[in-house]
Amino acid sequence: MAxxxxxxxxxxxxxxxxxxxxxxxxxxxxxCFGSGIIREIIKIGEPDxxxxxxxxxxxxxxxEDQITxxxxxxxxxxxxxxxxxxxARGSSVQSMSIELxxxxxxxxALISPSVLIDDVMGKKATVYLAIDNASAQWPDDYExxxxxNIDDIKSLPASHIINIAHPEQKKKQTIWPRxxxxxxxxxxxxxxxxxxxxxxxxxxxxxxxNGLIDPDFRTYIVIEDEAIEYTSIVGNQLLGCVxxxxxxxxxxxxxxxxxxxxxxxxxxxxxxxxKMMMSKEDYYLTDxxxxxxxxxxxxxxxxxxxYFEGINAQSExxxxxxxxxxxxxxxxxxxxxxxxxxxxxxxxxxxxxxxxIDGAGFVDEVGTSALISFRxxxxxxxxxxxxxGDEVDVIQHEQIQQxxxxxxxxxxxxxxxxxxxxxxxxxxxxxxxxxxxxxRKAKASMAILQSPIPSVNTKxxxxxxxxxxxxxxxxxxxxxxxxxxxxxxxxxxPIVEDKFLRGKVLVSGDSLTRIKVGTKALxxxxxxxxxxxxxxxxxxxxxxxxxxxxxxxxxxxEGVKLTFGAGWDIExxxxxxxxxxxxxxxxxxxxxxxxxxxxxxxxxxxxxxxTGDITVDLVATGYSGAGKYALVGAASKIKIGINDKSFVxxxxxxxxxxxxxxxxxxxxxxxxxxxxxxxxxxxxxQTIISLAASNTIVVRDSLxxxxxxxxxxxxxxxxxxxxxxxxxxxxxHMAPLDGGTVDPYQMI
Length: 748
Known about the structure:
Layout: H1 7-13, E1 21-26, E2 32-34, E3 39-41, E4 60-62, E5 66-68, E6 70-71, E7 78-84, E8 89-92, E9 95-101, H2 106-111, E10 124-130, E11 143-155, E12 159-165, H3 167-171, E13 180-182, E14 194-195, E15 217-223, E16 226-230, E17 232-234, E18 237-239, E19 242-245, E20 258-268, H4 269-278, E21 285-289, E22 292-295, E23 302-309, H5 313-317, E24 324-328, H6 333-336, E25 338-349, E26 352-357, E27 365-366, E28 371-375, H7 394-405, E29 409-414, H8 421-430, E30 435-440, E31 443-448, E32 460-461, E33 474-475, E34 485-492, E35 500-507, H9 509-514, E36 521-525, H10 535-550, E37 555-562, H11 564-567, E38 575-580, E39 586-587, E40 592-593, E41 595-608, E42 613-620, E43 635-641, E44 646-650, E45 672-676, E46 683-691, E47 696-699, E48 712-715, H12 725-730
Parallel strand pairs: 2-5, 32-38, 34-36
Antiparallel strand pairs: 1-2, 1-10, 3-4, 6-9, 7-8, 7-41, 9-12, 10-11, 11-12, 13-20, 14-18, 15-16, 15-20, 16-19, 17-18, 20-29, 21-28, 22-23, 22-27, 23-26, 24-25, 24-28, 25-26, 30-31, 33-37, 34-35, 37-42, 38-41, 39-40, 41-42, 43-44, 43-48, 44-47, 45-46, 45-48, 46-47
Helix pairs in contact: 4-7
């Protein structure tokens, strides 16, 4: 889905003239660098504000811990995101350079090891962008543009250029090198303790933050034609050996027989991907500051929580439910210092965000000096890629896993060194499941071939925000976005390299009959799919998604130029509404001009924040209407009625907007809604004409009554005259279950 942005950013993106501000923050350094002045909201309780100062709570002041040093002219200004779903890989600009003017030699001091920080090389760095500095407020109106690790520094006479490598680059590493040794003594066919000449490089399962060993990472050795599982190593001995595994037979082996390491990965596809990326046997972020123990924002008091002032900490730090934290340095160590406390809930307030810790008994500490560290719940395997939640889009992975791939199981035999972990992930983990990697949210993310699924932030692209309508070209080809045959090779032999015992071919007969260009096959060789884990059904499901996308040649539009306001928060793999009804585009389904609105996928994007130029490529995947997905309609509770045209709403139905419930409805243009009683009997259809930060809603015409506390506002039915086509494409609407003529039930 499109990046969620603040209302102020949404307003600023629509302005004709903008002055962007680029901000760079580096791990371990207290100040941030800007291309312009960074301004922030004044809040109660800030340590450097005193009674008598000329400031107003809620007003704006210049942030003190900043250095105006970025030269935009010497920095990267263009960000590219590209997808190749057929190869299961998305790519983006792999690095971003920022030029810092060396004011008073401050930057020289920063890049010099052990002067200001230990070493800037390898540090995490995040680049933020406010699209209009005149109105931007830190941090709400600064969106993450890029992040990664510093991998190169170029020093010039008056400046330094710092290069930041994208998290995707971190995947390109060697993991789990194959270890080899020999037997110092002969062994029988029943020995369960095996001596090795050397155990260097032989791995063992590790204990995760939850205190358990993950059963999906198993360690073996291969001696001649026998596979042997082991559970631990003491000295030069393998303990807990189970002989004759993976269909082999236990046999005796002579002294100096060759011993080779062997790893087995099992589990669902998404969990394997996350564990490979995020295992490092350590915290991924350490010693971060936070504001308070327990939320004290009146009228709420939420115990057993950690409160972060002024930031959306989940977006910034990347933690998710089930991750673990360690806290040290509190004023009440017996109650407030914890080790590996589990995050059980999270939320946001008007001025910050919080996490709740399982089983905590925190004593209040406002303005605490304690520090918090985060460890991923997926950090459960021996050292792998070592990425953190600030580098991996865990939320997107988990959503896809829960929706589609919870039963897409692998059993992978890793017989040799994984020399390129990124390539292994793309080809062995994502591709067989019709999934692919995506560079989104400045993180390593994923997407899946499926019917277009809208989101609450789905954008509408039409003649009002497409800059080059006369230059639009629709294409359909048998050399791109086309395929009629899927070939799978699977059931890899446990001992013999690159030997696959089974294969399967799936063909679109309709495509071969209609488009006579012969066989256009996509070949997938999978080490992890196995008949014993239901490979046949999994292949059928994954192949159906691929064929539906490519069998008739997906229509696509290249080089669609957008206004900055429309394209700023769109990312690759987003689903958008493309309305060509007023663009004179061909509707090949109807054989006429005037292409109706449809859901399409953004495949590539280029953003130049300096010029404001945004270009995207769009793909109409060719799915039939029978495969359409829709969202459950939005709804809010009414807190109090003001008069027959206005009322105040409040948070309801697990809203993600906290107390700013009005933001749920600010995403749409004059949405049509229904006001109803809680029992669903009394309904009044209307159209919103204005909403405010106070959560006050004003509708166009009189309702004929004043809404009451507890009433519900939700989207109007599909056939209401003011219900827009945009809403109809995004949200579903149920017909009466009894076949009657009453208004269909509104889902909330």
